[in-house]
Write a structure and sequence with these properties.
The chain is of the alpha+beta class. The chain has helices at 5-11, 15-35, and strands at 37-42, 45-55, 58-70, 73-83. 15% of the residues are buried.
């Protein structure tokens, strides 16, 4: 086994951390649709979402750019098209 391999395995995020980052990413998408942008960090992860505006050809849909990084490494980057109404909280 290479010398650095044990260190790399020890730094790999746990399943609980990955689930938490997923939850933060979903929250970031909703908040970016509502407010234009949203970001948070958790255990070295950085989640950023930025509303791009209406999706092409459909004003009812909104496009959001989502980026998840761990330190300086980009873990995920995507564009999500969502229904604007899904981000709105129901009236109580």
């Amino acid at each position: 086994m290479p010398v650095g391999a044990a260190v790399e395995l020890a730094c790999f995020p746990s399943s609980e951390e990955i689930r938490m980052v997923r939850s933060i990413a979903l929250l970031a998408l909703m908040e970016a649709v509502r407010h234009g942008r949203w970001g948070a960090s958790f255990h070295g992860f950085r989640v950023q979402a930025l509303r791009q505006g209406p999706a092409r050809g459909c004003a009812a849909l909104t496009e959001v750019s989502l980026s998840v990084s761990l330190g300086k490494t980009v873990v995920a980057r995507c564009r999500v098209i969502t229904n604007y109404a899904q981000a709105m909280e129901p009236n109580a």
